[in-house]
Amino acid sequence: MFAVLFHVTSWVLIFSIPFFLRPNIEAATTHVRRVPQPPSVQAVFRLLLIAVFYLNAYILIPFLLQKKKVAWYIVSLVGVFAVVLLVMLMVNRYEDVESIPWRVPFFISVFPTLFILAISTTYRFIIDNVKNERNLKERQTEHLKTELSFLRSQVSPHFMFNVLNSAVSLARVRSTQLEPTLIKLSHLLRYMLYESDEDKVSLTKEREYLQNYIDLQQLRFADSVHIEFSSSGSFDSYLIEPMLLIPFVENAFKHGIGFIDKPEIHIRMEERAGELHFEVKNKFNPANQGSNDKHSGIGLVNVERRLNLLYGNEHKLTISNNNNWFYINLILQLR
Asked: Which of 50, 80, 240, 333 is the most exposed place for a label (fewest CB within 10 A)?
């Protein structure tokens, strides 16, 4: 739409140039008799200026000026001025050409040509700038998709490793719980394999995913770990990036269990006025923070990166610890 409006405006200006120049030309050539010319001949002037517009915008600038061939560009412009002057002297024929003041050729050739070149140059740089911005956004979008796919590929194997470990533990010590565990695991796998390929999923599905994971962990640890999970709000109305919240929960189970007196994990998920308030807190043992597990922290690093890429200033993540309690608080503007 912008291009069409720009072209139409340019053509209107081009066709108006003779009317703006006529008073100056007539004032300078009152003593010189002009040979009458039919309207069709005057149209040549306008068509010539249109040709100059497109010649400069689509040939001279992209193939000469933008390729640093400045000398050739200047030579080409001189040639354009010469052609315009020649054609204009043919269109506006006078009986005594030698008596015409020097400013007449300026008004009838140089000034209109400069005006058209300025418009076409502006047009060329505008469309190039729009094109460059569009290409930049496309590259940024493609880079974002690539990076998010990479981050998800890191999350899924890491999470799967933890879930399978849970199933193995249940198979060893609570065989009667293996069947419900495998059912929960199948729901998790279905979500990971199919839902996580989508750009967005409903917040309800993400909540169910967390519920299945927490239930599975509850089956694994039974009463040895106090686990609380609460949720409230309207989840069906909003979408979220899949598997965005699970790393926070994983982190709580990873560092909130083992060599801890009465381990506790509290998870709260609440939709409030179009915002998601997600809180996770767990006890931890500072002596365990120097674990030899080199993969410790991968989940949190990835999810922080994903939040920055996807939500930017539309989220606030606070991570802190106090008195052997580890806190994660996420406020997310829902869409």
From this structure: 333
